[in-house]
Design brief:
Elements: H1 10-18, E1 36-38, H2 44-74, H3 77-93, E2 97-99, H4 117-144, H5 148-160, H6 171-174, H7 187-203, H8 215-231, H9 238-252, H10 256-269, H11 277-288, H12 292-305, H13 310-324
Parallel strand pairs: 1-2
Length: 326
């Protein structure tokens, strides 16, 4: 029988087998036809649920495309890439479409002249929430009706929907305020930190090489570190958690803007932190974001506050000279 799946290169398979977990979404559920799922017209609840899902998907995609166009128009490359990442996440998450539904036509693209960025972001966040709610409701419907096969299809959306690639687009909406202080010993937070750090270290894989990186573990560690900060904002582990969040974004997901913001929170929350947060932020600003002014600022901070790592201090001193000519 002819397969509906695209050919997979042998090299790609070998690389994924070598890796503890490839940085790729899990495959769509296998079926005779994995691109279309017929809506049972004799099941009005399914018709309503499938229609709600498709309507929400189209609206979400439309809002993301509008936001991306706005960032292209105003020349914000970082946010343009972020909106593109989220759009890709949406498109790779739902690998099937429902048949027998009326076509959902998105509204015409409105003019971006004089538009408020915050309003466009609000539209995206609201559409994202509506889409994920529609997914959850359809999963619940199929489980209630005992249809494991169709529930598996819809559950695969959530499995493939990458939490790393969704954004709030404003740092103040995504990252906790800088005035938090790590002051309390909280057993639950300590346990969360230990588990997250264990996942972080395991995720590095054999010899800490990309071939054996477990991106799944790194994602789980990231979510757990963030949950720790959200649930226990006074824990004495929040600054270290912020540092590891920055590291995960930097080392495994190329989220450089997010990485430097989390590194910054680490030393803002604990100015005496004994991990190289300032130095790491400096290297990202320097080598990835091409922002020499911020790089010099962070390198200077590393020289002043991170004397515990003399190798970093020597490099920071050298780079300041090269970047400033002084």
């Amino acid at each position: 029988m002819k397969s509906d799946f695209p050919p997979i290169s042998l090299i790609g398979v070998l690389v994924c087998l070598l890796a503890v977990g490839c940085d790729a979404p899990p495959p769509a559920p296998r079926a005779a036809d994995n691109k279309s799922l017929a809506v049972r017209q004799d099941n009005p609840e399914e018709v309503r649920g499938a229609l709600a899902l498709e309507t929400a998907r189209v609206a979400y995609e439309h809002r993301l495309e509008a936001l991306r166009s706005y960032y292209e128009r105003v020349g914000n490359a970082d946010k343009y890439q972020a909106a593109g990442n989220e759009l890709k996440t949406l498109r790779q998450a739902q690998m099937f479409r429902y048949g027998d539904l009326p076509e959902i036509v998105p509204p015409e693209r409105a003019s971006l002249e004089g538009v408020d960025e915050r309003l466009l972001v609000e539209y995206v966040v609201s559409a994202r929430r509506a889409y994920l709610t529609a997914v959850d409701q359809l999963i619940a419907l199929y489980e209630r009706q005992g249809n494991v096969y169709r529930a598996t299809f819809v559950k695969s959306i959530k499995e493939r929907f990458d939490p790393i690639r969704i954004y709030m687009y404003f740092p103040t909406a995504e990252i906790p305020p800088q005035d938090l202080r790590p002051q309390d010993a909280i057993p639950e937070a300590d346990a969360m930190f230990a588990e997250a750090r264990k996942l972080f270290l395991e995720g590095k894989g054999l010899l800490h090489t990309f071939v054996t990186t477990s991106y799944r573990r790194e994602r789980r560690a990231l979510v757990l570190f963030m949950e720790l900060i959200e649930k226990h904002p006074t824990s004495n582990k929040i600054a270290l958690a912020a540092y590891y969040i920055g590291d995960i974004y930097k080392e495994y997901f190329n989220e450089d803007v997010r990485a430097v913001l989390w590194y910054e929170r680490a030393w803002q929350w604990d100015p005496k932190i004994t991990v190289p947060a300032r130095f790491q932020a400096g290297t990202v600003y320097d080598l990835r974001l091409q922002n020499p002014e911020k790089a010099v600022e962070c390198y200077a901070g590393a020289i002043a506050y991170e004397q515990f790592n003399q190798s970093n201090v020597r490099y920071a001193t050298q780079r300041i000279v090269e970047l400033t000519g002084k």
